[in-house]
Amino acid sequence: MALRSVPDTSAPDAPARRTLAEGEGLHGTARAMAMFAVALSVLLSVLDYAIANVALPTIAHDIHASASSSIWVINAYQLASVSTLLPLASLGARVGFARLCRIGLGTFVVASLLCAMSHTLLELALARALQGVGGACIMSVNIALVRFIYPHSQIGKGISLNGMVVATGVALGPTIASAVLSVADWPWIFLINLPLGGAAMVAAAFYLPRTPRSPSSFDLASAVLNVVAFGGVIVGLDSLVHRSGPALAVWLLAGGAGAFVQLARRQAGRSDPMLPIDLLAVPDFLVAFGVGFGAFVASNFFIISMPFALQSVLHRSAVATGLLITPWPVGIVAISLFVGRVADRVPAAILSSIGLCVTGTGFVLLCLLPPDAGNLDIAWRIGLAGVGFGIFQPPNNRAMMVSAPRGRSGSASGMVSVARLSGQTMGAIFVALTFGFVTHDPTLRCMELAAACAFLSALLSASRLRALR
After folding, report:
1. Domain limits for position 223
2. How far apart are CA 209 and CA 295, in angstroms?
3. CA 49 to CA 303: how far, in whole Å?
C-alpha cells in the first residue's frame, strides 16, 4: 500500500513545510541538517549501548548484583529493542517517521534519567528496557528517513554515512565510559545522555523532513504478538543455552513459536503487514536480509570471544584488550567514506561479497596467530576484518531498501535493524553455547565459526551475481 500525504504539523517551524515524495530527497543545507539530526539520534542510541557494556562490572558492584544477573542491564535493552522494532516501524509509517524519531528521543532521555536514579537491579533493568524502546523508535525509522533525505541515486551515500555513525558510536563507547568512570560514578554514563539527547531533539524538531503516512490503522494485537514472539524465542534460547530452567525455556520457546505462527496468519494477505512476510517474498530483499543476518552472527562471534582470547590466551591486560579491539570500528569508519561514493554505482553482489571475504580472511588470520604474537600483529588483522565489514554493510543495506516497494520504507528500515539485532543476538547465544560445550580453547572455535559464517554469507551475497548477467 502506498503511503499518502498527510500534513504533519508536529514541527511547525521545520524548514521543509511540504511532504516529500519518496526518492525526491533534500538538497544543500536542508539535506546536511536533516542528516545531522538522524546521525545524532543514531549516535545517541548506539553510544549508550556500548558505554553500558564497559561499565557493567562497576554497576554490578555498586547495586550488589551478581555478575550473571547483572547481564540483564544489557539484555533488557537488547530484548526490548528487538521485540519492538517491527511494531514501531509499522507505527512510524502511520504517524510519520520524523515524529516517531522525536518520540524515541524523548523516551530515551527520560529513560536515561531513570537509569541514573536507579538503586536496584530491577529498577535499572526496567529503565534500560524503556531505553531500548526509545532506541528502537530511532533505529526502526532511521534508514527510512535516509531514503527521503537523499534522492534515489544517492541513497547508498546516506546509508554509508549512517553506518559510519554506528561504527563511531561503537568505537567511542569504551573510551567515553572509561573517561566518565575515572572521574565520576556510573550514573553519569546515563546523565551525559541528557545534553546529547536535548541537542538531538532540537535538531530533529527543526530539520527532519515530513514524510507521507499510511492511512491504515495501527494493529495493536499484532504488535503484542510480535513482542511475545521475539521475546519468547530469544529468552527461551538464552535460558536453554545457560541451562537455567530447561522446562521454562521450552515453554518460552513454544509460546514464542506459537505467537510467530499466529502473527503470520494474522498478517497474511495484508498490503502493509507489520511482520513483512511480503518483503521476504521479494528474492533480492530476502537474500540481502540473510546476508546481513549471517554477517552479524559472524561479527558477534568475534566481538564477544576476542576479549577472552586476548586476556586468557594472549595474556593482554584489560586496557590493552580495549585498545587492540579498537581497529575493528576504526576500520569500518575509515572505509565508509569510500564505500559511500561507490555503493550507488557498484552492485551489492560485488561489494558486499568482497567485503565479507575480507572480513573472513581477517578472522582466519586471527585463528593463525602464534601464542607470542605482538600487538601490531593482532591489531592489523582485526583492522583488516573491520575494513571488510565496512565494505559489506552499506551496499547490503542499500540493497534491502531499494528492493522494497515504494511506500514500504518503514518496514524495510525495521527489517534492516532486525537483521542486525537478531544476528547479534543469535551470535551471542552461539558463543555461549560454544563456551559451554567446548573445553579446549573455545575462543579459537568461536573465531573459526566467525570465519565460517563470514564466508558463507559471502557465498550467499555472491549468489546475486546471477541477476547481473
Report:
1. 219-271
2. 32
3. 14
* AA identity, residue 160: S
Domain count, the chain: 3
- Domain boundary, last residue among 271, 288, 314: 271
DSSP state string for 242-311: TTS-HHHHHHHHHHHHHHHHHHHHHHTT-SS-SS-HHHHTSHHHHHHHHHHHHHHHHHHHHHHHHHHIII
Dump pLDDT digits (tens) for 210-250.
877 877 778 888 889 988 998 888 888 877 776 667 788 88
Nearest to 303 by CA among 160, 417, 447, 452: 447
Residue 8 belongs to a domain: no
Cell (9 digits) for 201: 531533539
Decide which of 271, 296, 312 is a domain's last residue.
271
- pLDDT one-digit tens code per residue, 108-122: 999 999 999 998 888
Phi/psi at 14 (5° precision): -60, 140
Is-contact 215 4, C-beta < 8 A? yes
230 and 338 housed in the same domain: no
Pairwise CA distance, residues 135 & 397, whole Å: 19
213 bridge partner residues: 4
Cβ atoms of 75 and 238 closer than 8 Å: yes
In the block, cell 571488510 appears at: 388
Element (H, E) at 381: helix 375-403
